[in-house]
Design a protein that fits this description.
The complex is a heterodimer of chains A (288) and B (313).
Chain A: H1 2-8, H2 14-42, H3 58-64, H4 70-74, E1 81-82, E2 94-95, H5 110-114, E3 134-137, H6 153-157, E4 165-171, E5 179-185, H7 195-199, E6 207-210, H8 212-215, H9 226-233, E7 252-255, E8 260-263, H10 278-282
Antiparallel strand pairs in A: 1-2, 3-6, 4-5, 7-8
Chain B: H1 7-13, H2 15-18, H3 20-42, E1 47-50, E2 53-56, E3 60-63, H4 65-73, H5 80-96, H6 100-104, H7 108-121, H8 134-149, H9 159-169, H10 174-188, H11 192-197, H12 199-207, E4 213-216, H13 228-232, H14 239-244, H15 264-268, E5 275-278
Antiparallel strand pairs in B: 1-2, 2-3, 4-5
Helix pairs in contact in B: 3-9, 4-8, 7-10, 8-12, 9-10
Classes of the chains: A alpha+beta (288), B mainly alpha (313).
Amino acid sequence: MTSERQKTGTTLNRRQFITGVMKTACGVGLFGLGLGLYSQRASSLPAWAIRPPGAVPEDDFNGACIRCGLCVRDCPFDMLHLAELGQDIPTGTPYFIAREAGCEMCEDIPCVAACPTNALDHALTDIRKADMGLAVLIDQENCIAFQGLRCEVCFNVCPVRGEAITLDMQHNERSGKHARFIPVVHSAHCTGCGKCEEVCILDEAAIKVLPRHLAKGQLGAHYRLGWEQKRQAGEALVTPDAEHRYNLPEGMGYEHGGRGLIEEAAPGQPASPVPDNPLDSLNRKGAL
Amino acid sequence: MNAFPGQTARAEQGWLKAHKWLLLRRASQLGLLAVFLLGPLAGIWIVTGNLSASLTMGVLPLTDPLLLAQSMLSGAWPIASGLIGALIVLVFYALVGGRVFCSWVCPVNLVTDLAAWLGRRLDIRAGGRISRDLRYWLLGLVLLFPLATGVIVWEYVNPVSMAHRGLIFGMGWGWTLLLAVFLYDLFVVRRGWCGHLCPVGAFYGLIGVKPAVRVAAAGRARCDDCMDCFNICPEPQVIKPALKGAAQGIGPLIGDIHCTNCGRCIDVCSKDVFRFTLGYRRRPDIAPRASGGDGAKTVASGTDVPIPGRASS
């Protein structure tokens, strides 16, 4: 506007020039404000969309990724997508949905190798160190392992088998005699690849990959576990452990393993006036 | 005056001559799209990626320098192939003309050319006036966002990458942006997007300050003022100094950075006023003044006669 007038030779005083610039600046500023506010909303990644391995933290990712799709093309399993306008995922950025197809954790990580901008960090060379999220056995009411049924599909399909998911045997209270094989995820080994969520046999997966910040709690920084400290230091760091004593009648004791109050056997005497064999009581002669 | 630009050229020299550069340009635009689409549609992977960054035959990396600049302003550091790719693109467009990207590569050009064609056909006068300098304001905004917020905000609405990525990876609602650009060009401001607002075009224009390939109004003495070139040109302001500047001592070379080298002026001119010239063959009469910072101010030291021997085409 202003420069055209200058070219055509018409006079342009300082007031007009400044007014013109201010008008343009205001218009562009308003547009920028709108775009900026929209981008705030458009930058948020929903928990069900997972970035490829090596993705830098989400805040940085939306600045680093240039939306070229080279990672999508170099994925041999074709499970990455670029978000389209209108989806809840930042437009043009790569993602995958674990329930549809999890990451196969290729040893050579071709998606990272393809990224021209380090939005997928080239420092990631060991796929087992990838951190796409963290699997969480989120629905313990519907997971059939909790019903005492044998499933263990998530455990068996896990690419870090036996480390990221282990089976914890627990007593089956319902039957009273069986074990429940409970899958337990270990955050130190889980890469968030999503294979467990993909293969979960339920209609809706009971195990789901979540962003780590949603999946993990954190112990207060001041917290110390006494037994860990004791193990490291070789002794208790606070008040030394003293054996607890109950004020009990002579001959009585307390067993912490579950038996509770017990009578200690005096030398030469049976531990209890009630004989071990009930028949002895019944066959005993004399007054009861 | 012609009913439509190029009418006389078509009648006198044939349809093919009056559309030569247009056809070549469409072949370039659609051919590039086809090469990108061969992979996903036919499984023939010559090129992977999109205009933002691509890999050709597994060896040639190409990166959009404006996008890479935004990525780097947000604090990311690209790998070597990303940088090399951007450098190749920069050098290429610096040589052939920055805005060659706009008229020979960019998919949005198909949309805005359609709007311009339809506007002429249906005689729709999109009379809105905005400054052609707005694109530089937007370019500033585009670069400011990643610096200030750490997010490539422009990519949420950029119709250029949206169109190309959409065709290859899935459009979603991206077509609404293209429709908006189309309607804006057709009804609000003539050549409103590419010629006034697009910061991508502004960036590529800045790359091509001194390109080797330029259009010259070498035969401007023959101009019969039919106005066809002004009517067809997406950036008509670039023509006037070269075509009508003989009296002011301005050379016939179109030196404005916003000339997209689309060649439509060459097509529609029945007097063969315009032609492509290569920098190293420029005769003194069409060479820009060496000291001139502004390419538009070129000096004529000779006469405006047609140059024998075609420099390019």
